[in-house]
Design goal:
mainly beta; elongated; 54% strand; Porin; 12% helix
Length: 226
């Protein structure tokens, strides 16, 4: 009878562990460790990230861009996708700075610039770190950090040509499918300047939204699978 009683208790605990959104594991000393599932899953989900960016490395010329990334998450850490950024978004946004005019006045020369018109290419993304944080002791937000490498086509003062980019960014998620994205991206290209060919870096910082689709998901231990 005692054996049947313990068997019933074990079965009840097992069913309870499956039904709850957290996983419990017994330790030899009798304590129970509860493992909370990851709040946001990326695996097998499409990620859309619209962005607004501004250049930060060229003191003589300021540009703004609209664009974004559409990617597919192969796993929780690896994604592949495409990125596009359009820099010519209006005559009143961006252009030469006061320092540009100052250089002309002081040196009687015109600085060589290679402003971008657009960039489009393919990316590979890796997520080395992710976790969660508590905000004002009220809300718990999930975050991740990522690095991206890519290559594609660039149009600047010359015809479209090959270029590349490297990016570092972070996502902070408010729900299972919506988050805030911030990113630093360096677009690298070889440009034909009056003095000759030069390797040009266009570094931008951006802010945008991260949208994961489908909007919801199931854990492997829930009915119907993931």
């Amino acid at each position: 009878m005692r054996a049947r009683r313990w068997l019933g208790v074990a079965l009840a605990l097992t069913l309870f562990g499956v039904a709850t959104p957290a996983w419990a594991q017994n330790i030899e000393d009798g304590t129970i460790t509860v493992i909370q599932p990851k709040p946001v899953l990326r695996h097998h989900r499409v990620q859309l990230t619209p962005r607004f960016a501004t250049t930060v490395n060229e003191p003589l010329y300021r540009q703004y861009s609209l664009g974004g990334t559409l990617a597919y998450n192969i796993s929780e850490r690896v994604a592949v996708g495409a990125t596009f950024a359009h820099f010519d978004i209006g005559a009143n946004l961006g252009g030469t700075t006061d320092q540009y005019e100052q250089v002309i006045r002081e040196t009687a020369t015109i600085p060589e610039l290679a402003p971008l018109t657009w960039y489009g290419g393919l990316d590979a993304t890796f997520v080395p770190l992710y976790g969660k944080m508590q905000v004002f002791n009220r809300a718990i937000l999930f975050w991740d950090l990522y690095v991206t490498l890519g290559a594609g086509m660039i149009e600047s003062s010359t015809d479209p040509h090959i270029g590349g980019n490297v990016a570092f960014g972070a996502n902070v998620y408010f729900t299972r499918w919506l988050g805030l994205n911030t990113e630093f991206r360096d677009i690298i290209s070889s440009e034909e300047l009056p003095s000759g060919n030069a390797l040009v870096h266009t570094a931008t910082t951006s802010v945008g939204l991260t949208i994961l689709m489908p909007f919801n998901f199931r854990y492997a231990d829930e009915r119907g699978g993931r």
